Amino acid sequence: MNTNITHSFSVQGNLVDVPNRQIFAAAIHVEDGRIASIEKLADDAVVEGFILPGFVDSHVHVESSMLVPSEFARLAVVHGTVATISDPHEIGNVNGVEGVEFMIANGKETPFKFYFGAPSCVPATTFETAGAVIDAKDVAALLEREEIVYLSEMMNFPGVLHADAEVMEKIAAAHKLGKPVDGHGPGLRGELAKQYIDAGISTDHECFTAEEALDKLQFGMKILIREGSAAKNFEALIPLLDEHYEQMMFCSDDKHPDSLEEGHINQLCARAVAKGIDVFKVLQVACVNPVLHYKMKVGLLRQGDPADFILAEDLTSFKILSTYIDGKLVAKDGKTLIAAVPVTPINKFNCEPIDAASITVRRAGHELVPVIEALDGQLITNKIMENANLLTNSNDELVSNTEIDVLKLVVVNRYNQAAPAVSFIKNFGFKRGAIASSVAHDSHNIVAVGVDDDSITTAINLVINERGGVSVVDGTDQLVLALPVAGLMSAKDGYAVAKEYTAIDAKAKALGSSLSAPFMTLSFMALLVIPHLKLSDKGLFDGDTFSFIS
Q1: Whole-angstrom distance between the N-terminal and C-terminal Cα of the chain?
Q2: CB count in 10 Å sphere of residue 22
Q3: What is the pLDDT at residue 125?
Q4: Residue 494: in which H helix or E strand, if any?
Q5: What is the DSSP string of 257-304?
């Protein structure tokens, strides 16, 4: 973070004083990166725009933007975001502590305020192959660092409920240092939710119904309203904000580069205000609550605070005119003013191209085949059973059937040579071709879906040849976006990556998918800690029984 600001200036506008719920014409005087004074102007003063505290994304995996932190910052500031609570869990699963250190170091290259957490669940489960382990001792060491302000989402909620020694040691390390612990308890209700919260878990961003969120709110947990590229819980949870605004925050969790280019937390503010919610409550959630909860060194428009603020055109669209961080103008009139920095990639990739024979599945004689049902806008999936006869070809092999929209799903271990895992999935809607990705939560093996084995293996091999990326295959028409940084992120200019991703996303949708974000949805089909049915590199996994099924 750049705090070496040595100039003075003033900004005029209608200042929105969130704590005191008032708006008045004012001039903010900035010296050496801090607010030296706030001058209230005459009642008849004519000023333009609204001065607000900067927006904070209260939970995001920067890696999911396919951009390194320094490039993420360049796009985010255009929308008035000045800081993030960033969980480096994704790169942690690939490169371990080295990956976390990469994110911290790269983030420091910009004036943006990245606040990182210590990944709590690397690997996420023992039922998949990850690239690294971050154990309780590693977590304790990371938490000692100034740049690490919290323990990242505790996805192993069964471990919390059963008081697993390693899990409780990580939580205790955070509590010892007075640092909050983020939660991840999808579907937890009633006494189980209370038990999880009583262990010292302070937030949850996984609620997908208002009833679940209310259950957790009554036990003192803070609830994050998530709206990302795949998981969209805004509509379900926003009715709670009016009454519970002091205990809520906004987050994106996972946001692809094209949607980050379009907007960020400012979009959620506009949608909330459009529903008639009081603007002061909305800004409390978007700007103030994360700063207080995580004890962030982010200014809140008070004398002596760091000069972190934004100028918005109005309080309905939240179009951002300019963004300041530590008194430095970092975005103006829709253009980023943060310079790009060189990036030296780190990675871990150790698999070779595969052939179509390796994903051939012989029918085992069963009448029914378990199928993952993907749900647009949700991370949870359903477990359904499909008639095996509809998926069996003349060679007695199980294959995709586009007529019933059940396609072959494949996961390939990218860390070691191993046989691919194969299953079936519904709702991708492809009529031809395949897509593949090395962004596959949480261990980031290669995941692919398609209508025929040749297309699937070609898509996988495009990713392998780049040592990470996302790809689409439509006959001889092939496209790949390389992600050489841990197989998760590009080292290129963020706007160029957004343009490339827009093109490859459109090509994937042209295969027939009606999903709003096919690649983002695909990336969560190996996420075992979200029920109900997922596929890891080791096999088909039932998230309810936490065990493999045939």
Answers
A1: 50
A2: 10
A3: 87
A4: helix 494-509
A5: HHHHHH-SHHHHHHHHHHTT--HHHHHIIIIIHHHHHTT-----S-TT
Q: Which domains does the chain have, with CATH numbers?
A: 55-297 (3.20.20.140), 356-548 (no CATH)
Look up residue 113 and give its two tokens: 């305020």
- pLDDT of amino acid 5: 44
For residue 493, the SS3 value is coil
| 219 and 194 Cβ atoms separated by less than 8 Å | yes
Task: Specify the pLDDT at position 4.
Answer: 46
What is the rounded CA–CA span in Å between residue 417 and residue 549?
A: 23
Return the pLDDT at 544: 87
Per-residue b or e along 92-115, where b marks 16 or more CB atoms closer than 10 Å to that residue's CB: bbbbbbebbbbbbebbbbbbbbbb
The two tokens of residue 152 are 């990242």
Phi/psi of residue 484, each to 5°? -75, -15
Q: Is residue 29 helix, strand or coil?
A: strand
Nearest to 437 by CA among 447, 452, 424: 447
Are 103 and 92 in contact by the 8 Å Cβ rule? The answer is no
CB 115 within 8 A of CB 85: yes
HSE toward the beta carbon, residue 368, CA cutoff 13 A: 7
* Contact present, 26 and 15 (Cβ < 8 Å): yes
Token code pair at residue 87 = 């969980």
Give every residue of the chain whose pLDDT is below 70, as ranges.
Answer: 1-6
Residue 7 has a pLDDT of 81
pLDDT at 24: 97
Which of helix, strand or coil describes residue 189? coil
The one-letter amino acid code at 79 reads H
The answer to whether 246 and 63 have CB atoms below 8 angstroms apart is no
CA distances from 285 to 58, 196, 250, 320, 480 (A): 10, 24, 6, 18, 38
* pLDDT for position 458: 98
Give the tens place of pLDDT for each residue, 245-278: 999 999 999 999 999 999 999 999 999 999 999 9
What integer best gives the mean pLDDT of the chain?
96
Which residues face 382 on adjacent strands?
A: 373
Tokens 């590199």 locate to: 537
Identity of the residue numbered 28: I
